[in-house]
Amino acid sequence: MEEKEEREENKVIKINDHKKQKIIPHISVKKFLLGIGILLICSIMIIWATCTTKTIKISGNSHYTDKEVEQAVKKNGYIDNSVAYLIKSRIFQPKLLPFIESFQVELEKPDIIRIHVKERKRAGCLAYNGKYVYFDKNGYALESYEKKYGDVPLVTGLQFKKLVMQEKIPVKKQEIFTYILELTMSIDKYNLPVQEIYIKDDGNALLMSGNLTIDLYDKENIDIKIPELSGILKKLKGKSGTINMRYFDEYQKITIFKPKKVEKNK
Fold it and tell me: Which of 44, 56, 94, 234 is deepest in the core (most CB within 10 A)?
């Protein structure tokens, strides 16, 4: 008798439990996805309506002007919406200018973006057809300007018949460009007043600083020769002649200065 009553009691659904089952909402996957989709569309519409870019600020550039960078931005997949362009730049970065290695977009205000660019070093420049042709460490001629950048040495002495933009400068020993970049970076690092790098037939370099010629003799010990030149050039400021570094190494820092002979009027 007791067992029968227990079985019947188990079949009874308590009123409170039944109420709890009723108040649990059931949302289908389709409705959930539809809600997310509507929310996303509304967000995009609000962003598109309120984040139109009115001002582009440029920073980090040393050779390119703000105007040159801004024009390059607008010609390469630009979106006139600050948030949209920020997202796009994080996913895909177009190539802006030959010597811009990368750039980063920052949102200052809904209608203002800042583009911080990182320029890569120009190895040097050549005087060609009345203009200055700038090349990279791999020897590619990438830019041609009438203006000469003060911190990029003029490279002379290279032998080639024809120069084509966006192609390698056709010299016999292509590794010479890595050497030129090393010199350029060292000259820039120690702020040396070197205006010209002359490459001799044997591939070694002469540096021209005003009326002084520095003969590095070979490619060895560049990392200690260039820093030493800073003090030497200050001592010889205003003089003319040749500084010979043939016997200069880490053990004996010997430089020989040979003044230029002044011709007497007969």
Answer: 56
